[in-house]
Amino acid sequence: MKQVKLSPSILAADFARLGEQIEEALAAGAEYIHVDVMDGHFVPNITIGPPVVAKIRPFIQSAGAVMDVHLMIENPGDYVAAFADAGADIITVHVEAAPHLHRVIQAIHETGAKAGVTLNPATPLVTLEEILPDVELVLIMSVNPGFGGQSYIPASTDKIRRLRAMLDAIGSTADLEVDGGIKPDNVAEVVAAGADVIVAGSAIFNRKQSVAANIAAFRAAIA
Ligand code: DX5
Ligand code: ZN
Fold this sequence. Notes:
By secondary structure, the chain is of the alpha/beta class. The protein is built from seven helices and eight strands. It has one domain (5-222): Aldolase class I (TIM Barrel, Alpha-Beta Barrel), CATH 3.20.20. It has helices spanning 18-27, 50-62, 80-86, 101-110, 156-169, 187-192, 211-222; strands at 5-8, 32-38, 66-72, 90-94, 114-119, 137-141, 175-179, 197-200. Zinc ion binds next to β2.
């Protein structure tokens, strides 16, 4: 099994000091930085777009980390080039937002970025069957997308297990990422089910402890 990577979601960061917060996460050893893009249509919230991605790119690049962009938007194919130009290393799109998913995955690859697919909690894994061989990342949403700070949906653990089996069955080395409600007290369950990239927002960027202490708590719980 691959080493487990952390992908702190900047959705929970203090946007007034975004660069600093990303530097804290990178200094603490975060391998990926997760960028949640929301359009107010696919999900009921609006967050950030390509200009912000371009501004944070140098921080992530100089640390040798991966910019992990999660598009929660309608018509994702229309924005793939803009996010790739802004510095996205991985671009993940929702199955529910892309009727021509294969074309969108091709468009992502044409930019040189890696391609990811994701699905909402109520969307079955069978919708991924045909596209799995073509992607470098699969993201299981363990909350309904739109907001940080929600509770982990317990049924996600079995879904992760079943996806792990599907990936293993085709010999895929794609990242199996999980996003939503993950904390030091449930991350071991998520990893045991087969996840190898963990997204965490409110459990990493909060006022309770430093980013470094929160990341250390995740590593201790995974070890
Ligand atoms: C939800 C986003 C998540 C979210 C995770 O729509 O995709 O990345 O920020 O936040 P927490 O870890 O607070 O659930
Ligand atoms: Zn996300």
